[in-house]
Amino acid sequence: MSGKRPEHRCGWVALMGPPNAGKSTLLNAMIGQKVSIVTPRPQTTRNRIVGILSEPEAQIIFMDTPGLHHARNQMRGHLGKMMLQAAWQSMAAAHCIMLVLDADLYLRKPEFLDRDIAALRDALVEDERPLFVVVNKVDLFHDKSRMLPLLSKLQEYLPRAEMFPLSALQKDGVEELKKLLAARLPVAPSQFPEDQLSTAPLRFLVAEIVREKLFERLRQEVPYSTAVDIEAWEEDESRGQTVVHAVIYVARPSHKAMVIGRAGATIKEIGTEARKDIQNLIGGKVHLQLWVKVKENWSEDTNLLHDLGFGLDE
After folding, report:
1. Is the dihedral of CA 55, 58, 64, 68 positive or negative?
2. CA dihedral (190, 50, 68, 166) positive or negative
3. How far is CA 181 from CA 132, 164, 231, 266, 309, in A?
4. I need a labelling partner for 266 at 20 to 30 A (CA). Which of 111, 160, 194, 309 fits?
């Protein structure tokens, strides 16, 4: 008995939501490989990161967006405007919208729910595109019945949304979500080669890895005042390695000292950890040189922001 093969589907999915909800972790879990950096700090993602999942019967093109912060003063200046623009443009371009929320946060502090999804709720309530509400981080509490009031409230806010509790970190529920998403996409051929995982240039991905290590090693506000630019990229065939020169921009001289650390210990640790991930990314040996430069108000420099990759996939 031979059944009819399902028609191939392809489309764009926007991952929306407040900061630190786990959008990047979910994207990496869906793709099965790291394409978006992840740290415990909110507002890690600054640009729209496109991750591509290719399977025999569907290609799902995910757009991981900067978190939409409830406080407008957290998103001031050119950098903040570009981050907001990246998020809203992704939503406008999507065939399907996936709102990612931190279930554990709202169980502990239910009053934050209204604050965090007000703008998204207003934008989505009249939208007719497929909408998933991914209630993430369910691995952080044992009694799953505690979610029922939260799910009920979310269904009240977004009546036509499909609710999907899962744990992106544990990859619990990810395969089921893939199937549901694929079924909601338009019938269409793939837009990208099946071995392509992202639309971002390799240099951008390498700069993001360095920035991830900055977030992991530094404290308080320092990571938010840093940016990473790849100044030089050379293939040293005689030594069989890629030589990468990266500049870390900081806003203050005091931040430069913190990034470098005593006797250069901090920047050495950052470089060591970043090199490991970069080697995994490019599949070969890497010689990574890091430099730190003070550039006050770099986040207001529109030319530098474009050089750093903002708007790279527009």
Report:
1. negative
2. positive
3. 8, 11, 39, 42, 28
4. 309
250, burial (CB in 10 Å: exposed 0-12, middle 13-18, buried 19+): buried
17, 120 contact by CB (below 8 A): yes
**What is this structure's pTM?**
0.76
Which tokens in the block code for residue 196?
């392509």
Q: Which of 266, 252, 263 is nearest to 214 (CA)?
A: 266
Contacts of 263 (CB under 8 A, 6+ apart): none
First vs last C-alpha separation in the chain: 47
Nearest to 270 by CA among 220, 213, 227: 213
Are the C-beta atoms of residues 254 and 220 closer than 8 Å to each other? Answer: no
Q: Are 246 and 207 in contact (CB under 8 A)?
A: yes
* pLDDT given for residue 313 in this prediction: 46
Does residue 55 contact residue 85 with C-beta atoms inside 8 Å?
no
pLDDT tens per residue, the chain (314 residues)?
A: 455 667 999 999 998 888 889 988 999 999 988 887 665 544 445 556 789 999 999 999 998 877 665 444 444 455 555 556 666 677 888 999 999 999 999 999 999 998 888 878 888 888 899 999 999 999 998 898 999 999 999 999 999 999 999 999 999 999 999 999 999 999 999 999 998 988 888 888 899 899 889 988 886 656 667 889 899 999 999 999 999 999 999 888 988 999 999 999 999 999 999 999 999 888 899 999 999 999 887 777 777 776 766 554 44
Distance of CA 209 to the CA centre of its chain: 12
Side chain identity, residue 145: S
